[in-house]
Amino acid sequence: MAVQKVFALTDETTEQTRSRPARATRLASVPRRRRLSELSDLLRGCETVAAISSAVSEFLGSALACTRTGYAILKGEHTIVEADWTDGTVASLSGRHEFSALGSRYAEHMTRDDVLVIDDVKLHPATAENHSLWIGIGVRALVNVPLLENGRLMAMVYAHQSAARHWTSDEVRLVQDVADRAWEAMGRARAVEALRRVNDGLEATVEERTLQRDRLWALSTDLMMVSNRSGVILSVNPAWTLRLGWREEELVGSPFTQFLHPDDVTETLAIRGTILDGAVLEKFVNRYLTRDGQIVWLSWTAVPDGPVIHSVGRDVTAEREQAEALKAAEEALRHAQKMEAVGQLTGGIAHDFNNLLQGIVGALQLSDMRIAEGRLDGLARYNAQAQHCAERAAALTHRLLAFSRRQALDPKPVRANELILGMEPLLRRTLGESIRLELDLAPDLSLTLCDPNQLDSAILNLAINARDAMPDGGLLTISSVNTTGLSGRADAEAICISVTDTGTGMPPEVAARAFDPFYTTKPLGQGTGLGLSMIYGFMRQSGGEAKISSQVGTGTTVSLRLERYVGADVCELPDPPRGPMQTAGAGTALVLEDEPAVRLFVIEALEQRGFQVIAAADGPSALDIVQSARALDLLVTDIGLPGINGRQVAEVARATRPSLKILFMTGYAETAAASEGFLGPGMGLITKPFRVEGLELRIAQLIQG
């Protein structure tokens, strides 16, 4: 603490103090350096503020031979004298005093960091106004050295004389030196005390945390274990006995694998190897055996710590049992839902097919009655009715196959925008005048690979659904855009076709079931509930996806996403042949079909068109024919045959007859739909049920292609 200024006042009364040679001689006889060295030695042994205060006061009083010396701390408006020294003629000032009571001018001097030297309190401006107060406490002359920190008065060292006295410059410097040494010592003492408090606090904290750790170790219901790198248990907490029944003495010193379920040892040791390499293990679950042979599932967290591994295991047996119970309940719920869906499916099929069969059976019976009566009028009408019902039945099975993703598809590279634009006139007629149609098609829309007829049907079905959702009219928007992302393939490039209406919308529980088969909110007889399920099945079978976004009162958007096609552009197919199939020189055909009615129908159709027909009811019979020397120009075969199927027969036939034309028939063609390259050159596919004209068209395309 540097001291800047010394203020002193002398008058005739101070002459009396100047004639005190004994004191001056004593002070002068001791060199200043020696005095300070003695003070340093004295302070070196003081460790507390109180001890320093006492030592400084006694040293200064003895050196100056004055009546009182001391060290005071200033706190707010008060002065606290920590310790002082007196010669016995005056009282001690130890305690708390009001600083302002000593006078405003005195206080002003002290806060200016000025050393205040007063030879007579009656004459000095700082004390003259209330000199009687000073004399009353035994002070006629004084030296005060203020100690400031950051400009703030913190403490002071003082020397008092009960009579007027002239303070020499050596005496004043001594008070300053003592004050500086005292302040430095006080700072060190406060730091030591603060450090001691910190250390005491740390020790208390460490002790408390140790106690907490010990309590946690003893009271935790989790299993705690310390093991060495070889897997030998070094220590365990009481939870092992509580949970597993093993006593501590049975566990410590044994390999932990001794208590593992045998089936979990290999996996656990492999995981432990990663911990030994420095990895931290979290939520690894394995099985331990209790002392009585029961199984307990434990979820482990483990960390390496030099030569040991610390592990904590939580008993998750109850959670796993709950999870298994939940899984069983969910499986039972799924089974119940599946049975409900099967019930809806069979009920819906029975209802619709009974209606269709009634139309077919009724028309045929009426035809038989007319023929029995010898009447031919009306036969054409009944025949047309039977054919119409049969075609509706075929459409129903087609939708079922689409939902189950087992329909026969004919995928081609498709320009979806051109397909939508080609549908526009049909869509406008279907929607009616109260619904406005808008097309928002991306000009750079990529190609996609799908069956264009099925995509056309899907968009038309969505438009009809949207029309039904807008009974009072509204806006239907069909948009297309290039996008990314398909189920399970976030980076897949795709196109998206969206059909958006401004209709009534669907609540969440209806939207969640919209793709279910035979689920419909329409009244009985006004919908089968297969439209959206057919679209869903077609999209999944084509490698795409269908999603619904709907809000009640706002409208619905159905989005169809298909993967982009990368390859050759769309090929223009030749126009289908016109007119009846050529009969001249039609050749020989082998018909392989296990259903007698279908086999008879195909044979009759081919014979009426000039083919010589060989029939086979199973694969082995057909193989005997194709491996014989008989001439064959055409093989018409069902795919789904028991034993040797139609595809296998075709492969054998092509091995010896590479130019043989082959037409596959199917009512269930998952393989044909899913396997790329199923149809080779000179092969075709026709889906049951089919008309004679359709059969003729397919055969003509094969022969002419």
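[next item in queue]
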Amino acid sequence: MTHADFLKAPFPKPVVLSQEEVTGPKRFFNRELSWLAFNWRVLDEATNPIVPLLERLRFLSISATNLDEFYTVRVAGLRALVRNGNAVLSEDGRTPAEQLALIHADARRLMQKQQTVLNTLKREMEAKGICILTRSKLNGRDLKHLEEHFLNKVFPVLSPLAIDPAHPFPFIPNTGFSLALELERLSDNRTLQALLPIPQQIARFVPLPARDGENRFLPLEELLLLHLNMLFPGYTDRGHCAFRVLRDSDLEVEDEAEDLVREFETALKRRRRGEVIRLKMTAGAPPELRALIMEELGVTEAEAVEVKGLLGIADLKELVLSSRPDLLWPTFVPRVPERVQDNEGDLFAAIKQKDILLHHPYETFDLVIRFLEQAARDPNVLAIKQTLYRTSWDSPVVSALCEAAEAGKSVTALVELKARFDEAANIRQSRRLERSGAHVVYGFIHYKTHAKISTVVRREGDNLVTYTHYGTGNYHPITARIYTDLSFFTCDSALGRDATKVFNYLSGYVQPEGLENLAISPITLKPRLLELIAREADHARAGRPAEIWAKMNSLIESEVIDALYAASQAGVKISLIVRGICGLRPGVKGLSENIRVKSVVGRFLEHSRIVCFGSGQGLPSKQARVFISSADWMGRNLTRRVETLVEIQNQTVKAQIVSQIMAANLADETQSWVLQSDGKYLRDLDPKDGMLFSCHKFFLENPSLSGRGTAGDKDVPRLAALREEPLTTQG
């Protein structure tokens, strides 16, 4: 089965496996290989003809960035296990060494494919007037322009380094990019080995003079090689290579650190100097130079990769040119819910009328910022509490909190210092908040706080009303433009009390009791999830309609997967949208024949976490239990993080989530890959009748479905009807 009509098609015929495979470790897919399969899907978008050309280049760049991060974190961890002699098996029964061997083989294939895709894209870009040149293709005008550019904008920041006993091999930081040179002195033919580190602050691609409608670029390393005579006067180039270093980027923090901020600042410096995990070098390096680099960096042959082509493909994001809108996705303006407009932008008045659900990026994230800005300036607001996991460097959310604190309001900010690769930004924001007078707390040493909660306490007459925001994504205005997430605003008193108890837990370590519509990890979220899955299985055994729809980024927690297997065996129909890692093996007789899994990869990064239970009525239905969450179904999220699972009680919000958002994602064809029982993902882009259905395009073009923030009752049947009819006319 491929993706076609996934939502309304019958479940595929199950495959038959041995009893050992059904009950043993082979009932799970390997986490690391599943992640690599996801990155193959990302790379495949760079070859998708329906994607605009420069957006395909962006997907290629993203696939390279993803692979770098995977090596600096996941592969680094596996390598440490191997070096320590740890042979503990993964859930699918593989040792760390076995996993590393499979990872390296698949990653090398992936990198070769990246170069093939790049060559194809370069040809297509040249046809559209965008050229990446080499030194041999330059004309006199180019050379004159480049000499001026080199002297004024590059030469002053370079530090050419000889390598000899008086000049030891320098430290190359994580993601550091350098030229290694074997030079010969013209006066006496004496050999010099040298290194030219390339500062990351300089753009990788140098623009060249071009006619109107054209864009020409030269890679920075080509510019440097062109001007070696200025860097090493009196020498000639006998051989060279470029190389790039990836280092262990995981952080270790002392459990008993007295000052957590200072400890993290120290840990960030240690990360910069972490062990080399992978060395990528351009092919054709002089043997002595190659051996020297590997020896100095402590790299084995298994950790060194020769690249025939462009090194540092992640840098291609620089060539996604805003000046070429004809080669990019069409722009769109995120919508503002009509109810907010009807209340002249007063969010508190709009929320007071009815709960609001925003579907980002189709609906503007600016309202989340406006919620805090309005609270900062409202004289009736007494207190604001906010979690911050990832923020932008100059965060408007933090600015609003600082404004509120400076206005004398009580502001509490939970800043998570352990947000990987955003630690430095979060430390900066915590300092800024403290200077404004906000109370900054850092949660737990052993748990990351990944929950997305904001509360505003407002005096209204003789009462205090708590307005609460629960989100599935980060308070980050930049990623909110490209991530699909949900923002839920409510002044429901029970949800307000729940949020307050969570903040008290984060600041005072007192476990919350009596949560009403909220479950949190690491305390109640996983038990609640397992209970809800088991309850749906009870409905199936009793002969009632039983169905689960869920959407998340990753699914690898073995106990949850086994619960889904048990529900499938009881007769529950389970449809999962898992964008990235999936350890669950669908479509196996006697194990998971009632489970199907798809991954949606496209223009927007699917990031929202949703789970819907039919509650004996099937889906969609008014009796369905619907939850939004900050948590993926992974061990770290369910046992080592503070996360939220929020039950939606409002019927119109429930209808919007089930009958619109989930139904459209399940019905999607254009961006969907369907997971097979052997671990392969299949996609069919051949339209059967008319155009294929795209959930992203659907939400962009149907403001009536999400423009209000909560769907009106008359909108609910639209996707319900869509589920019963061919979807091709909607694409």
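[queue empty]
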